[in-house]
Amino acid sequence: MRKGIQAIGVIALTLIMTGCGQANLGNSYNEGTDHQYMYDERIGFLHKQAKGENGYFFYHDNFLYYRDSMTEELIPLCNRVDCLHDEETDMDRRVTCNAYVGYETGSDYPADVGISYYDGYLYFIAEDTPSHSCLQRIKEDGTNREKVYDFGDAVLYGWCIHRGALYYSEQTYTTEEIFKINKLTLSGKKKLETIYEPDRDNVTVYSLGARITAYGDYVFFSSVGTKGNSQDEITQENYADYAFDLTYAYNLENGELSEIKAPDTQKNTYLGQVSFWKDHLVFVENIWGEDWTGKSNLYIADLDGQNAEKLLETEGGMYVDSDGTYLYLNNEGRYSSGVDEAQRYWVYGDNMELVDSFQVSRPRFNSMPIGDENGLCYCADDENVWRLIQFDKSDIGTINGEELSGKVLTERKKIAVE
Q1: Phi-psi bin for 164: left (phi > 0), alpha (psi -120 to 50), beta?
Q2: What is the pLDDT of residues 364-373, one digit of tens each?
Q3: Under a CB-based contact definition with an 8 Å cutoff, are residues 298 and 308 in contact?
Q4: Model confidence over 2-51: pLDDT tens digits?
Q5: pTM, rounded to two decimals
Q6: Residue 99 contacts by C-beta under 8 Å, 6 or more apart in sequence?
Q7: What are the distances in angstroms from CA 415 to CA 94, 160, 175, 408, 418?
Q8: Judging by beta carbons within 10 Å of its beta carbon (0-12, 13-18, 19+), is residue 400 exposed, middle or buried?
Q9: CA distances (Å), 108 to each of 43, 129, 172, in order?
Q10: How far apart are CA 208 and CA 221, in angstroms?
């Protein structure tokens, strides 16, 4: 684990850097500049929630919404007084709303949109057509919506904004499939660089960077595919010998890449997704093809994956999250696959003592990030309305395994579009 002398070194480096460009922010979470890892998704991977200066942002069914922390009112993120926003029935007028981020081609089918708050703006990557994406941003008050960068014909998967740059995975098609992890600086003149590209001569990648997140001086991403080259015959029987699902840490300071894995890792294992706690990396190792009846381990490590230590043994199909206050284990994998009948959370304190546990009632495939210290939120759809529901965390320590009650923060009608 980190030694005291290392911490002193980080402080000294920060002091040296101050006044000559952006200071090195070190390996702790910095509100306002850093990726909001507590809103990392388990389903779909793109963020649908973000925290601003005075409230929260949500994406649902092609619209951006803002919820003020004081009034708790949820409104479309558009300042135009002549706009009906999500109540508009005419498609031509609907797409002109500042809060509308769906396709501009007349289809109201939900686009694949993610959101991220950074430096006074809500950023989002919108698909103006099903095959064309661009990075846009809008002020927190619903004004000044503008395009920031055009991705051309690249297909984007995971992405995050961290310390002044957009990190994203792209897939392009020329004579072959090409996957890359890119970095785009957001301040001043836009600078694009590729920070990782797989060796296509020795691996076949099926997915790169679908799970992408960041903390401190590191960006983390996954790579899924098969080892070997086109001459290797991969069959159903030997697939497990070739398949891989790896997680990497990329050091933003020196460009070094390291694989994150458990000590004495087993063959055909994967991490699912990483999270962060006490300025360290936490992850659960699972087994390929596991039916969730076996056991897994929860680990903590330095941010580069070094010095990994086992925290506890748990069931298969578990995920780990942190909101900066508590560490949470949840049975998302088991619940989504139908192994468990209820969504359960186990809450741990500073010394890995079990503080509490609780259940929540929600649809199996509705994503719900762990959120900040205030609560967990998700959007629930009915035929004619949708609701924003929050599970309040203030009762943690007294729930004792019972169900955590959900509160309907708002309800909005679904409008049929002409």
Answers
A1: left
A2: 766 689 999 9
A3: no
A4: 444 344 343 333 433 333 335 678 899 999 899 999 999 876 668 899 99
A5: 0.88
A6: 63, 64, 65, 76, 77, 78, 85, 86, 142
A7: 11, 31, 43, 20, 10
A8: exposed
A9: 22, 11, 26
A10: 7
